[in-house]
Amino acid sequence: MRRPTFLCSGLPAMLLIALTTRAAGGAAPFLQMHCAGCHDGATKAGGLDLTALALELDQPENFSRWVKVHDRLEAGEMPPKDQPRPPVEEANAFATQLRQSLLEADRRRLAAAGRTGLRRLTRAEYENTVRDLFDMPGIALAGELPADGSAHGFDKNCDALDISHVNVTKYLEAADHTLDYAIATRPMPPTVHKRRISLCNAGGFVAHVVLNGDGVLLVDKKIDPEFPPSGEQGHIDEGAHERMGTFERGSSVGLFRHEDESLSPYFIDHVTIYPGLYRVRTSLFAFQWDQGQVLPARGTEAARLSVVQLTGDGRGGQHPSYVLGYFDAPSLESQEHELVTWLNHNELIGFNTASLAPQANYYKKKRAMEFTGPGIACDWLDIEGPLYEVWPPVSHRRLFGDLPLVKFDAAAQAGTRPPLRKQVRQLSGKNRPDPDAGLFTVQSTQPLADADRLLAEFLPNAFRRPVPDEVRADYLAQFAARLQEGDCFETALRYAYRAVLCSPEFLYHVEPAGVLDAPALANRLSYFLWNSLPDARLTQLARSGDIKRPDVLQGEVERLLQDPKSQRFIDDFLGQWLKLRQIAANDPDKKLYPEFNPYLQDSMVAETRAYFRELLEKNLDASYLVRSDFAMLNQKLAAHYGIPGVVGSKIRRVKLPDGCPRGGFLTQAAILKVTANGTTTSPVPRGAFVMDRLLGQPPEPPPSNVAAVEPDVRGTTTIREQLAKHRSETVCASCHAKIDPAGFALESFDVIGGFRTRYRSIGEGLSAERGAIDPAIGIGFKLGPEVDPQGVLPDERTFHDILEFQSLIAAEPRPLLKNLARQLAVYATGREVAFSDREEMDAIIDRTLAEGGGIRTLLHELVQSPLFQSN
Amino acid sequence: MHGRRLFWVVACSLYVGSFGLAADQPPDLPTTKHQVTGLFSKERVPDLEKIVRQLSEIELVRVDFATAEAEFRYDIAKVFPNATPEQIVERLDQMLRNASRHTFGIKPLCATPREELERVEIPVLGLDCKACCLAAYEAIYKLEGVEQATASFKEGLVVAWIHPGKTDVKMLETALKQRNVTLKESARP
């Protein structure tokens, strides 16, 4: 399906001759004189033999090699400083000549092949598109689709988005699942139930652990007089307690224990039967437990609510599908929290005492009566739903309009097959389905006319552009054929809708070559900032053509950014640009980093997302990418960073004290974690990350015949000492001179982003102080050698610590802005920024800097540019 | 033995009382005495009253905790039409179990005179928790030879009235231990 990216053999012979002649005439002597000494067939420095590198720019690999030659020369990196330099005029002339050749070749390539290849929706785009198309904001589809590839750092790239029979099969399943959810099958909405649930609900895990001393029941913030805490004698027989109604008397459930391998707290009384929106309310407080006494808490604690998917294979329910949020539990003062969330079949609400340290009393002789420490209590959880504003729901109306839902009359419709209904088994829960109302289906008295009308409304929305009559006629013909074969109206039209959802027009971004037309521009903007299809207003602007007007386009960028759906862009873009998707790729070593937990990890990600949002909203300049006077923190992260005065689980803007290196992406815990391996840090991957992701100078991949530097957690040698040896290899030195400095500066931060002056060790070393680590957490690590964060940049500038490094990098915002522009452009357009786009990219940067250099300005300039608006 | 037991059952089933009439039951209805299971402590008497109030056709007239016997008033023809005395006990048992999540039940009155039963006391350790007491009670009350039992961790005592030839204290202790009830070390030599 993809268009070829490069012309492999189609370049006219005359052109080849012209290029090589030019190289031979002007370039060859320059190369021979200044480069071939090292880059000849014998020496082949850096693996490059320029004497054998023909100027055949129609060959992708060849083209990219010449681009590197051009870039090194332009940056003044080549010839090396210790070699004789060519005269400036001569070097400039060669660079100009080479640039011109590269530009001409690249423009010809793009003119022939198109800029962005045909690309399908990513998994996230597909899911969001279906959610918005049918107004089903939480239907889960992405997890069932095959993983997307990645090219140039993003999964939106056409080079990565291939398609196979597996995809097609999964698209069919997803379409059926979507239509099952979307189509109303009853004349009245499901009954709205409001259920109050105790965390200690029968059949859940919590009752068991409370009986054994990992929790207590409380009434009015005191011990429940009818349920003494487990001490030397524990409670016996969980079933007897359930039957006696011990857990149904409205007592608050206080937990000391954190979610772990054998404890997954959740509110199992409600297991969703009807997918839809549900209102969830809960009441929480914190307390200090002291061997049988309830005392004021050490401060505000945080509990996590999540959505858990039960599965029928016996393995479900162990892990949250996704986190709903972290909620404050103040000391001995119940605080209520409310949210509305979508729940799918067999989903329920999970709970965790997020801010507590791992703790268990069940194995202790006196259980809770010998425990002193913090607890989090849940008074109750209310769940109300499903909530519908209209019935039939919007999803159904988008398919069948206002056609009535009537009881299927088999006798009156002899020869017509009734619609099939999928039965979903409820895997647990005390909520029960409504009585069966019978078989209801959509009725039409003029099926062909209604189907044509409904398809005419649905198709342009699904395909995100006007749909020709003949295309609609194809789908109408499919409907008519099924109707002819005996399907009822609903089933026949459902068949056509299923075909729509599996069609190329739905699954692919349809973008004409050249300048984007209005619908394509609206789509590109919408998939950029919402990761989904345009809404009604944007669609209207596309239909009228007004979206092409710069002022309208600018207004739409603002509107889309202010819409909550823009969080999809932030999550998706940062997930790939800054690799936040890999935040859980490794679990930090428990001996070395015992303070790490999921709450800290989620807070890390929340910080990075909130910080990017703040950069956009406040239109801050690119220096903020690496250095800042504020950070986006909650209590957990602030404690991790050693910043006092932040209370509560919500992320908020916090002014940083002087001399604090936090704030910018460079020193955010999430970035520091995704660039470490969970046990040790290395300046190499971190340096490479900074080069590639922040500075836009991706280093060359390491040679295959050089062994990697192995970490030493015994505390005898530092990574710097090991790297010094590694860098003594000539083949390694030149690249590491660029990569390592940023990595050295970031050595001040451990694998979970904590600041350090010494490496942690599990072997030799000094005793470690507890610092901000929870008193309930045992410390087994020691302090090894001192961290040396000094370094020298390739341009000889030196720094002594991370603060000086940040200052050096922040002092030159253009490369930072340019890189961000490139990352955004790749993400937004679905293709790599080409060599011939460089002038346009520079123009975008110039205009942005002229307007103050703000990041939202950059985004506007990008959207207004031909780069964004053409294909 | 069997004949004497049957006599007690029939006699008690035909017992007519003249006290505790409820407003919602016709005054001329007789009361019937049954043995109640689940009455393992005095605190359970109000629980029983609450549960029986949920049964619209049944009235609890009186409870004798010492013997775990209770008098009920109901219209046999209406509530248990065509039922034999044994079936009435079975059905009332089921009603009470359903209403109490199987923490109360009914069984025929004890056919053995109390003086022929052996009272056994087993000192236990545990939490002063009603559900834990239920667990300890349930560990033994269904054992063959156990006629009646109480359990109180507050008092640290499980008491049972047993038929000497059918069970003994060791069997009760074993059953309690299997239910994770801790026996006081001084309970048995």
What do you see in this structure?
Chain A has 871 residues and is an alpha+beta fold. In chain A, 38% of the residues lie in helices and 14% in strands. In chain A, the strands form seven sheets. In chain A, strands 2, 3, 4, 5, 7, 8, 11 and 13 form an eight-stranded antiparallel β-sheet that branches. In chain A, strands 6-12-9-10 form a four-stranded antiparallel β-sheet, with no helix packed on it. A three-stranded antiparallel β-sheet of chain A has the order 19-21-20, with no helix packed on it. The longest helix of chain A is centred in the N-terminal third of the chain and has 26 residues. Chain B is α+β, with helices and mostly antiparallel strands. In chain B, the strands form two sheets. A four-stranded antiparallel β-sheet of chain B has the order 2-3-1-4, with helices on one face. Chain B has a four-stranded antiparallel β-sheet with strand order 6-7-5-8. Classes of the chains: A alpha+beta (871), B alpha+beta (189).
Secondary-structure element series of chain B: HEHEEHHEEHEEHE
Could you give the count of β-strands of chain A?
Answer: 23
Provide mean pLDDT of chain A, rounded.
91
Major sheet size, sense and barrel closure of chain A: 8 strands, antiparallel
Please report which band the strand proportion of chain B falls in: under 5%, 5-15%, 15-25%, 25-35%, 35-45% or over 45%: 15-25%
| Strand order, sheet with most strands of chain B | 2-3-1-4
Major sheet summary line of chain B:
4 strands, antiparallel
